[in-house]
Amino acid sequence: MSAGAVSLPDMADFHQQDLAGSRFEQVHLQRASFREVHLNDAEFYDVDLSGAQFREVFLSGVVMRGVALQNVRIEGELEGVTINGVDVGPLIQAELERREPDLAKMRPTDTDGFREGWRTIERLWAETVERARALPEAALHERVDGEWSFIQTLRHLAFATECWLHRAILGDPRPWAPLSLPWEQMPDTEGVPRDLDARPSLDEALALRLDRQAAVSRYLATLDDATLASDTVPVDGPGWPEQRSYPVRDCLLTLLNEEWWHRQFALRDLAVLEKRPT
Predict the structure, then answer these.
(1) Contact 255, 263 (CB under 8 A)
(2) How far is the C-alpha of 148 from the C-alpha of 175, rounded, in Å?
(3) 223 CB contacts (<8 Å, ≥6 apart)?
(4) Among 10-24, 154-168, 243-257, the least confident range
(5) I need a labelling partner for 17 at 20 to 30 A (CA). Which of 3, 211, 234, 263 fits?
C-alpha cells in the first residue's frame, strides 16, 4: 500500500460527509449507489459509466467532450442541449409533436388555449385509466423499474393540483389530502402527507384524482386574460410551492406539464405490465 493510502472495507458507507475537493484515481465504484449527492463542478476524466442509471439528475451547464453515447436512453427536459454543434432540443420537440400532435396544446398562450389543453388532458387520461382497468389491480400497484406505480401516479397528480392550483393560485396553505403523494425527494414537511405504503384501490385513488381534476376545470371555466397575466398572492405556512408569488400562467403550465409527462410515463409502464403473463 502506498504512503497515505487508506484501506476501506469492500462495502463502505459515506453518510452526511463533506468530501468536497476529494480526488479519486484508479478507484473502483462499480454498483455504488449515490443518493442526494452533490457533484456540481466535479471533473470526470477517463471514466467508465457503462450501464449506469441516473434518476432525478440535474446536468445544467455540463460539458462533455470525447463522449461515446451508444444505446443510451434519455428522458427529461432538453433545453440548450448542443450535440456536435447542433441544438437538438427543437428537433426532438418537433418529432414529439409529430408523433403526438396534442403535445402542442400543452403550451397555450391564452385562456381558451388553457381550457382546450385541459380538456385534452382529461380525455387522454380517461382513455389511459380505461386501459389500466384491463389489468389486475395488483399490477396497478407494481413499480416498473423502480418508477411509481399507476396508482401512485394518480396520487401524485392530485398532489400537483393541490400545490399549483389550491395552494399557489387559490391561497389554501394546506390543501393536501391524506392520500396525496409528493415527489420522492421532497424533504419531510409539516402538514404534507407522505404515505408510500398506502395501497388504495384504483377507484379510491381515482375519487381523489377526479375531484382535483374537476377543480381545475371549474377554475379554467371562469379564467380571464387579466387573471392569467397576473401573479399569485404569497401563501402562509410551510409546504410546496414555497411561500412567494408566482405567475398564474406558470402555475397552470406546470400543471399541464405534470399531467402530460406523467401520462407518458404511465403508458410506458402499462406497456410493460401488459406483456407479462396474467
Answers:
(1) no
(2) 22
(3) 111, 114, 115
(4) 10-24
(5) 3
Q: What are phi and psi of 234, to 5 degrees?
A: -55, 140
| Cα–Cα nearest to 118, from 44, 218, 202 | 218
Question: What's the rounded mean pLDDT across residues 209-226?
Answer: 97
* pLDDT at res. 10: 61
In percent, how much of the chain has pLDDT > 90? 58
Per-residue pLDDT tens for 135-151? 999 999 999 998 999 99
* Rounded distance between C-alpha atoms, residue 66 and residue 69, angstroms: 10
Give the mean model confidence (pLDDT) for residues 248-267: 97
